[in-house]
Write a structure and sequence with these properties.
The protein has 16 helices and 16 strands. With 383 residues, it is an alpha/beta fold.
Length: 383
Amino acid sequence: MRFKILGADSETRARCGEMETPHGKVKTPFFMPVATQATVKTLTPEQLQEIGTEAIICNAYHLALRPGEEVVKGMGGLHRFMGWSRTIVTDSGGFQIFSRNGLSRVSDEGVEFCSPFTGERVFLSPEKVMEIQSSLGSDIAMPLDHCVTYPCPREEARQAMLRTHRWTRRCAGAGLKPATTAQALFGIVQGGMYKDLRLESARGLVELGLEGYAVGGLSVGEGRELMLEVLEYTAEALPWEKPRYLMGVGAPEDILDAVALGVDMFDCVLPTRNGRNGTVFTRKGRLKILNSRHKEDPRPLEEGCQCYACSNFSRAYLRHLFLSGEILAMTLLSLHNLYFFQHLMMDVQEAILTGNFGQFSKTFPTSQKEEREGRKEMALWTS
């Protein structure tokens, strides 16, 4: 993997770059749709490419459980298996420690989970995680890490951070790096909300000389102000010449603030999950398609948007699809939302390169509040 910076903003730490992997070039900053099970829900790879998606993220933990990494490997690797020819990042499953807290056992050797599919106990060591991702054949692999809850006692956060370091060293150690030499390995900064632990984590990972660095353990309930405070000093402690990845954070306003702090990569389920639930992102804020005011509304979801949904269908029609329980509604709204996110990132890139990022971020809506009406219709539809 190669990464170069093409330009930087003079007023902030925002930068525009280009990351090259075995499956193509990705211009930064960029947003990755989440394809946990080797698919972005309700959308085809062709649709993703048409809206400008250059990279996606899959979950190695889930794919190891179903269908199994050996099945994927036998089918020619993850790219061929899912029909995606561009860059793929695989997360290790470390977040499942957090999301399945109480259903997993963590030790220095690794993590033991209860499979949500079979009920069997599954053990993941750092070495096993790298073996799985090597079999999948992703372009960028993430090491096993220990993400803690919020709030978290200092000593617990410290032990999780140190454990993450030990696991990362085992992933990056002799003979333990991905067997596919083209597969890059990132490190994940942990340490809870404690500045000294975050900085210690960043220093320790940088010493390993990895291909890139991620900031994990944020957006876990700490609130936006604290999240940005932690992100600011953490990102500043990471090498300028390496890509920086903020894991699991994806609200448009958060992305803009994180870009200003020097972050290059993002992923989040927000655009597709919200699309499946009838919420639309626009430059004027969020829109609830089930709101009764859209019953006879001939306008597209967003005036001026060139996505397939906005180019062909009215709000009235899309509302009808949702109330009728038609799957097409989820597809069209998810498609619009991802188009919105991808073109937001394109605009960010251009703004950085032309020296207008500060002005661009100021003119973007600071509030993305959802419409409050339409809840009755949603309740009826989902009942």
